[in-house]
Amino acid sequence: MEAVVEATDLERRYGDTVALAGASLTVGRGEVFGLIGPNGAGKTTLVRALTGTTEPDGGSARVLGEAPADVDRDRLGVLPQDFSPPDRLTARELISYYAGLYDDARDPETVLADVGLADADETWYENLSGGQQRRACVGSILVNDPDVLFLDEPTTGIDPAGRRTIWSLVEELAAGGTTVVLTTHDMAEAEHLADRVGLLADGRIVAQGSPDELVAVHGGASRLTIETTTDVDAFDDLEFPVERAESRRRSTNTDAVVIRDVTPAEIGPVVDYLEARDLEYTGLNWTEPDLEDVYLELADDAERERTARVTQRANAEAANAGETR
Ligand SMILES: Nc1ncnc2c1ncn2[C@@H]1O[C@H](COP(=O)(O)OP(=O)(O)OP(=O)(O)O)[C@@H](O)[C@H]1O
């Protein structure tokens, strides 16, 4: 794989805050890499280190074979989370303005159409809706037809149809060889777009792989949710006809019982079993694990480790303070 974006053991601290604690990743040409992780995990800092807008304290970053600050700007597209263009430009003027910054830019009319703003082209940026503004921002960073795109939460605030428009655009660009690194809190977005996903927690990539690989390794078991108006206690001692039921639990926010590790073929026998016992149910929902389950599992683990580290450090400091007293 030709590495277009590479981070090796990147570290970045802000005072006592460790934003990156040895983050590494490699992204190949035409690949879409999705960065997911909890708030404050270090995603934006990692994107900033890869685009040369923050200097790491340790480790190294290469983009298109060069240090990020040295990369030819014509070859990069960067959509920051807080991109805020001038308010008093229309969508067309905005995109034309960015197009004017490059010797060889795409036709602004095509870009407007690509991001679904052809009908709002004469509207001032400040009067566009939040989602339209984000579309205009995405359009602005595509005008130079970049080889590498960094998108920090590209579809936040965009409606479902707009989100699909942006997704199609990203897919087309990647098919044409553009390398894309995107951060997102939207697991459906990561699952849909990313060839590989990296989960960043506490400044480190704690798992990476294709969405399918991650789900297979970390996603856990399928779930059969039985929604019921019957007292859930009635489900406590049941021996459901399932081979490998891992565990059974009551859903906390609904009147529902969840059985884990049920195969699709076992759903029918479970239904017969409930009906034979006159246990009424109002809904049955079988779900396979997905990226959200992976996220919750790994982010939880990382949070527990972080809490343990903080407690350990606090205890050590307290012990030291005791010794020096
Ligand atoms: N310029 C800065 N000055 C001080 N602290 C910073 C700065 N930038 C980031 N941080 C801190 O570094 C940590 C990582 O922040 P970062 O914005 O990279 O996380 P993130 O994963 O992008 O979060 P989110 O999902 O909320 O956007 C946080 O604790 C944040 O407060």
From TrEMBL:
Every ABC transporter domain range: 5-227
Keyword Signal applies: no
Keywords: ATP-binding, Nucleotide-binding, Transport
CDD domains noted in UniProt: ABC_DR_subfamily_A (cd03230)
Top-rank taxon: Archaea
Record's keyword annotation contains Hydrolase: no
GO molecular function: ATP binding; ATP hydrolysis activity
Family the UniProt entry places it in: Belongs to the ABC transporter superfamily.
Name this protein carries in UniProt: ABC transporter
Source species taxonomy: Archaea, Methanobacteriati, Methanobacteriota, Stenosarchaea group, Halobacteria
